[in-house]
Specification:
- The protein is built from seven helices and ten strands.
- The protein is of the alpha/beta class.
- β9, α7 and β10 form a beta-alpha-beta unit.
- The longest helix is centred in the first third of the chain and has 20 residues.
- It starts with a strand and ends in a 7-residue tail after the last strand.
- Bound molecules: 6-phosphogluconic acid.
- 6-phosphogluconic acid binds next to loops.
Amino acid sequence: MAEEVAGAEWIVFPDKEALSLDAAYRFAALAAQRTGKGAPFSAALSGGSTPAMLFELLAAEPFKSAIDWRYIHLFFGDERCVPPDNADSNYRQANELLFTRVPLPDKNIHRIQGELPDHDEGARQYEAELRRFFSLKGDEPPRFDLVMLGMGPDGHCASLFPHKPALQEKTRLAAVSEPGLKPFVPRITLTYPAINSAAEILFLVAGSDKAETLARVLPGPADPDTLPSQAVTPTNGKLTWLVDRDAATLL
Ligand code: 6PG
């Protein structure tokens, strides 16, 4: 069942398994549009628990063989400021469930260095990596082929938390953000300019704990400082919400 409001389309799935399978097919199809002509496919992965099932699907058949990993470049929407082997690391989850299971060249993994003592240096280095990879000039934003996002029960996405200064960042592509939810460690996050310039933005939202917030985020009214996910509005791209029935009960 597809609905639409304010240009955002949302599709409701019976459960997280069906949602994750649809996301895997979308990832593979979008990737093939680029890799089929030998071009790189750039995707920013979301953190948290929701994408774990998707990562496992992509690392298994039929997706493992269907995707030409030589041309896949994986980034992160955000990272916790912890070492890459820490249980709270978004990189660690993606590495264990996906990177170590597919023939993805190490150079195609673009990690956020959350472990650096100077977190702003970590944000600057990530931004420099984005500028290098996308050959950015001046203040043009990167154009990810795909940005995947989750939504927290507080309406945050990436590490753009309600009422935090990172929401106001309109120039830098990556910024340090104080946490608004557990784990209460500082984060490094893509900013709205880096997210909203993507060709495709895909939210994956599952679970009854998201239902009340999703019922405020999707239909509106707009209150993006309180509900940061509402400010994800692609400037020249497509936004799709994949939600499961538990998260959609109040829509
Ligand atoms: C993070 C994530 C964050 C996540 C949402 C949803 O680093 O925590 O990037 O934005 O996507 O908090 O998290 P769950 O998938 O665990 O509900």
